[in-house]
Input
Amino acid sequence: MASSALTPATPSITPVSLKEIAPWAVFVGLLLLALLYFVGAEQGATSLIAGENVHEWVHDGRHLLGFPCH
Amino acid sequence: MTSVPVRALLVRGMLAGLGAGLLALAVAYLLGEPHVDAAIAFEAAHEHGHGGGTEPVSRAVQSTAGLATAVLVYGVALGGLAALAFCVALGRVGRFGPRATAALVAGGALLALYVVPFLKYPANPPSVGDPDTIDRRTALYFLMILLSVLLCVGAAVLGRLLVTRLGVWHTTVAAGAALLVAVGLAYAFLPPVDEVPDDFPADVLWRFRLAALAVQGALWAGFGLLFGELAERLLVPRAVRSRPATAP
Output
């Protein structure tokens, strides 16, 4: 019984193989980076969509999240 | 070998990012918005803003729905990316369980993605920053983030190489010192950006920047704790988790 106190609560963890992570990192990772781009930089230095509605909509967030803004 | 589901961790990361985003949104609205308003009042008084006229999105929408969209999308996106980083870090950064690994990843993300770039190019309220230099400022800011992430990952890799020879304590000191020197060099070589108008109230600037830091602190603390809990439940079997509580 005393030995159970010495047993670590979490057994040693097998690392996730990088091969398994790679496809997720590439496809979902790029998608998430694109989301960050639209929140942080679209219609600032570069514009994929014409106008300034995206910029104006996320304006306060851009300032408070630390992105350069106009 | 039991394969850990990357997809399940990714989904949990994005959910935890959403939850943390809600916390960060509350901080941004309560602590940040008053200073945004103060800065816009300064801008209006000095008449060199967007050229005045009709704003496509009203201030009332910008400070509520607009702010919420930005912070929540930011939270979900970074939550997913941090979950991917967690998948890589798990079992590779030392003898840490899922919860502690999640806390380390969140702390590392706060440092690498925000604090290190912030110390060189801090967040600015409206009316600070010349619209004509937005290209240069954007390029420098993203370059600083990229450098910061590379240097922080580099320090972690260096630590892994040194740990068998130096032990955990001295490795942490050595890798930390190497990171500090490298970041200092980056700060020294990148050009400064100083576009604060002469008569802009210093107090508003300082409080706005503290609020911006608090937003990130809330986001990553919330993410680390929430995601750690979800990952622990996913990866550690219930019997093992409850053992310490029931053992005599």
Observations:
- Chain A touches chain B through 49 residues (CB under 8 Å).
